[in-house]
Every structure is written in C-alpha cells, then in structure tokens.
Specification:
With 279 residues, the protein is α/β, with parallel strands linked by helices. It is 51% helix and 15% strand. A six-stranded mixed sheet has the order 1-3-5-4-6-2, with helices on both faces. The longest helix has 25 residues. It comes from Amycolatopsis echigonensis.
Length: 279
C-alpha cells in the first residue's frame, strides 16, 4: 500500500488510477513483446474443469489464501485482467468504495472461490481481490470449495495450456495408466497424445491376437508400458536417440519412423541403427 495522504477518499481514488495505469502499461508491454493474447486473460474455471475432468467437490469453509494463487474466474469477467487490474473505468465507483472501506479499516467480507490443486478461481469477489492487490496485500480471506479433478492442474499458466491437459485427459481415458507409468508418459504437443493413444490401442489389438483372448484397457496400458515402452526407451537412451525430447515423445517418433521406413513392429539393434542413420 502506498503512503496514505491522510485523506482516505483521495487515497482510494489514487489506488484506482494507479491500478488502471498499470493495466494499460501491461497491455502495451504485451503487445510490444508480441506475446499470445491469452497471457493477460483470467483462466475460465469451467474450461479448466472440463480439461482436467471433474470428480467431486467439498466445501471446507473460510481460509486465508495467497492472492497470487488466484488465477481464474467462474463468470469469464472482462472487467479485470489476469492480475485483477481494472480494464476500464466501468468498475470505478464500486472499486473505490471498497478501497475506501479497506483504508478506513472496515470489515470486508471473505471472497468465495473454488480450489483446484493449489489454484483458486473466483466465484464472487473480483473487486475485493483487485483492491487488495492494488493496496499491496499478499493474502485474503476466502470461503473455499475444493474441486477434485482427474488430472493435476500443475503446469497450467495460460488458457492455451488447457489444450494439452484436455488431450492428456482423453489419452488417459483410452490408456488408463497409473502410478509411475502415468507420470512417465508425457508429450508437449497435444496432438501427440492422440497419436500415442492410437498407437497403444493398435499394440493392444496385436497383443490380444497373439494371446487369443480379450484384455481390458487397464491391463493393455500397463503391459504396453512394461513390455514395450520401458525397454524401448532404455534402448533409445543407450543409443542416444532421446536428445531434448521427453521419453514418450522419443518413443512415438521412433515407433512411427520404424514402421514408415521398415514396415515392422519388432525392435532390435538393427532397427535402432537404421533409425539413428535417419536423424
């Protein structure tokens, strides 16, 4: 909070003008750096839940949360940017009324949020968060409802990150890996999850043909990881074919190249050498 002048109403007005100025400068900086349009947009709660897969929710009551953990909103508000700075003068009257109350030390009711992992999404209280941040606070009281999802929200920064999470969720529904296997199979390009899902399903179909019996998805996923993915990744690492890729990315690349070049599903040293020569 800046040094008060002794006139709370004037200080509240200055708080708003300063927040608006910072928002305009931030938007200009984003444009000059040619950053994606979504870097200053709050994450939409419902899109996040859809990408991660809803499981359940539990209301846990009032908690003190950090302001920098609030990254999104339920109502897709356009009145504030990602850092809750006002995007126009439309909210000024209400904003300054709250800022004045805060500077006078009046009680401010808790905001209401959803919690996913360590992230918070505002249900009610955008103006209160904006004022708190403008006045230099780091925490705020909130009534919290915890939402559990199929995927962990770690790695989500911008709206564009939801695409990868959504494709990963669909991949894990097709290939229900668990534990270490689940954590090990990661690709940066969302489309690679679709390709990898097709590849594992084809591998599982060949496995069922070889064994002459139906095998459920969870068993196919685990056997693919143990009998195909893990030994192939070990060979690729030994042959120095992984490079800067993730293990799953390297596996998918060589699996596709192997079949395109050699028309086989087998793995041996000859295959690895042929693939190395194609780099």
């Amino acid at each position: 909070m800046t040094r008060p002048t002794g006139f709370p109403r004037a200080d509240a007005e200055n708080d708003f003008l300063r927040a608006r100025r910072r928002q305009v400068l931030s938007r200009l900086s984003t444009w000059l750096r040619r950053e994606p349009d979504d870097v200053n947009i709050m994450l939409p709660f419902h899109e996040v839940v859809q990408a991660l897969g809803y499981v359940s929710e539990t209301r846990i009551g009032t908690r003190v949360i950090t302001l920098d953990s609030i990254v999104g909103t339920v109502d897709r508000s356009r009145d504030f940017d990602r850092r809750f700075r006002p995007t126009s003068a439309r909210v000024r009257q209400r904003w300054e009324r709250l800022a004045l109350a805060a500077r006078r030390g009046e009680a401010i009711p808790p905001i209401e949020v959803y919690r996913i992992g360590e992230l918070h999404f505002i249900i009610d209280g955008h103006h209160r968060v904006s004022v708190a941040l403008a006045q230099g606070l780091s925490t705020i009281e909130a009534s919290v409802t915890v939402v559990r999802t199929k995927l962990n929200p770690s790695g989500i920064r911008y709206r564009g990150d939801l695409i990868v999470k959504d494709y990963r969720r669909l991949f894990l529904e097709r290939v229900p890996l668990s534990g270490h296997a689940r954590a090990s199979v990661l690709v940066p390009d969302p489309w690679n999850y679709a390709q990898l899902g097709e590849h594992v399903e084809a591998w599982g179909f060949r496995l069922m043909q070889d064994e002459g019996q139906f095998i459920d998805r969870a068993t196919v996923a685990q056997r693919w990881f143990d009998e195909e993915f893990t030994p192939v990744v070990a060979m690729l690492r030994q042959a120095d074919l992984i490079g800067d890729r993730t293990e799953a990315e390297a596996y998918l690349w060589v699996a596709c190249e192997r079949y395109r070049l050699i028309r086989t599903h087998r793995w041996d040293e000859e295959i690895i050498e042929r693939l190395r020569s194609q780099q």
